[in-house]
Design brief:
By secondary structure, the protein is mainly alpha-helical. It has 4 helices and 2 strands. Strands 1-2 form a two-stranded antiparallel sheet. Strand 1 and strand 2 form a beta hairpin. InterPro entries: Asp/Glu-ADT_sf_sub_c, GatC. This is GATC amidotransferase.
């Protein structure tokens, strides 16, 4: 199944993932093909699962029993990058190529 330039553009903005090369587009197409297998599953008579947030006005919280604490130093040792005492997340809004630029490598996939 071919992925249109518009769908690719939408997915890139949602996921902040760059599909600039043909390998990225090919991987996306394989993922879609894999997920399409779910269409053959017979779900007749199967009720939708209940969601915690669906039709609920109030969420009940459990009591929070703290058993450990003061482990900031140990937690920050897991960070690839940190500033002061904060994890550094990847930047959002990565620059993406224009639709016309991506159209060229989509033709070859």
């Amino acid at each position: 199944q071919k992925v249109s330039v518009e769908v690719l553009d939408h997915l890139e903005h949602l996921a902040l993932v760059d599909f600039r090369d043909s390998e990225g587009v090919e991987r996306l197409q394989k993922a879609i093909q894999f997920a399409d297998q779910l269409h053959v599953v017979n779900t007749d008579g199967v009720e939708p699962m209940d969601s915690v947030l669906e039709d609920r006005w109030c969420l009940y919280l459990r009591e929070d029993n703290v058993t450990e604490g003061n482990c900031t130093k140990e937690l920050l040792e897991n960070a690839r990058e940190k500033v002061e005492e904060y994890f550094v997340a990847p930047p959002g809004n990565i620059p993406l190529p224009k639709l016309e630029e991506r159209d060229s490598f989509l033709q070859g996939s």
